[in-house]
Amino acid sequence: MLTGRAVARPRAVSVIEATGESRPPGRIAGDRDLLSRALDALLDNAVRHGAPPVRLDIRREAEDRAGIGDAIAFDVSDGGAGLPARWEALAGRSPFQAGDDASRATGTGMSLLLASAIAVAHGGALRYERRAERTVFALVLPRR
Predict the structure, then answer these.
(1) Please, what is the Cα angle at 79 between 75 and 83, to 5 degrees?
(2) For 126-139, how does the pLDDT look when each residue is reduced to its tens digit (9 = 90+)?
(3) Which of 21, 30, 32, 126 could tie 122 with a disulfide, CB 3.0–4.6 Å?
(4) Can you list the pairs that 25-29 forms with residues at least 24 positions away whose Cβ atoms lie under 8 Å?
(5) Could you give the CA distance from residue 119 to residue 122 in angstroms, rounded to a whole number?
(6) Helices (H) and strands (E) in the chain, counts
């Protein structure tokens, strides 16, 4: 697993302090600009709506539970409280949908919808979960 800690600067996010395995867990095929946009959206969402520290972990999944098969997961996590309870059931949908009440919340869920649509267009999925007091959005993409 490659690990980094993301830090926010005005309108920018950087990954620093990379640790872990010295080589990536594999390759993915896809549109570099769209995949970058999906990761940027997830990192920006974590910085805006989560709590420090924000992390990016890249790992291989031998069998993703969404049926993707051999995959690479880009886990963007933060120390925040996670999604509002009314959104949690919707977060498992693919593509992610914030629901009709999204406009009354702090955010609209558009960055999550964007990341989800990009993942699905690449044969992957966007997954949400709480792990050890952390909010995790995983961009899961098939290995090529």
Answers:
(1) 80
(2) 999 888 889 999 99
(3) 30
(4) 25/1, 25/58, 25/59, 25/60, 25/72, 26/60, 26/70, 26/72, 26/143, 26/144, 27/143, 27/144, 28/72, 28/122, 28/141, 28/142, 28/143, 28/144, 29/122, 29/144
(5) 5
(6) 3, 6
The identity of residue 102, as a single letter, is: A
Domain 2-131 has CATH 3.30.565: yes
* 141, amino acid identity: L
- Domain ranges for the chain: 2-131
Q: Based on C-alpha coordinates, what's the Rg of the chain?
A: 14
Q: Using H for helix, E for strand and C for coil, what is the string for 31-64?
A: CHHHHHHHHHHHHHHHHHHCCCCEEEEEEEECCC
The pair of three-digit structure tokens given for residue 60, joined into one six-digit string: 């291989």
In degrees and rounded to multiples of 5, residue 101 shows phi and psi of -90, 10
